[in-house]
Amino acid sequence: MKFLLDTHVLLRWTDDPARLLSPHRRILRAAEASGDRVGASIITLWEIAQLVERGCYEIRDSLKECIASFEAHDLIVILPIDGAIAIDSHRLGAKFPRDPVDQIIAATARCHDLTLLTADERIRDSGAVATR
């Protein structure tokens, strides 16, 4: 496993791959072709649930089925939050966005030595985590 998916990348990959940035589309197509797995933080599933509940993201099935589909996906490994991630999320530096979800996702990538696939320029520009 080489990559961790930011929430919007996970949603675009599974719902509308044409909306992915072209480098992300290439990486994820290669993963699909080779069977390489990618990571997603458990907090990404929480964020998806929040988006659904606030009406910012529409799903076809129930929230339970939606989350279960990510958990059962052959190429997605859901990574838990542990103590190292909690601590590292506070070591991202002053340039990193203050959003705690972004902090946990970035710390998850760092603690698992993964490159974060994100289109969020604030995260990319912070230099706190390897991104593509």
Helix percent reads 40-55%
Which percent range describes the beta-strand content? 5-15%
Distance between the termini: 15 Å
User: Helix tally?
Assistant: 7
Q: Could you give the count of β-strands?
A: 4
Average pLDDT = 97
Attribute tags:
132 residues, mainly alpha, Rossmann fold, two-stranded parallel ribbon, 7 helices, 4 strands, globular
Would you kindly provide a brief summary of this structure?
This protein is 52% helix and 11% strand. The chain has helices at residues 7-15, 22-34, 42-53, 63-72, 83-88, 100-111, 121-126, and strands at residues 3-5, 38-41, 76-79, 115-117.
Descriptive report:
With 132 residues, this protein is mostly helical. It has a single domain (3-126), classed as 5'-nuclease (Rossmann fold), CATH 3.40.50. Helix content is 52%, strand content 11%. The chain contains seven helices and four strands. The chain has helices at 7-15, 22-34, 42-53, 63-72, 83-88, 100-111, 121-126, and strands spanning 3-5, 38-41, 76-79, 115-117. The longest helix has 13 residues, at 22-34. The relative contact order is 0.21.
Strand-helix topology:
Blueprint: E1 3-5, H1 7-15, H2 22-34, E2 38-41, H3 42-53, H4 63-72, E3 76-79, H5 83-88, H6 100-111, E4 115-117, H7 121-126
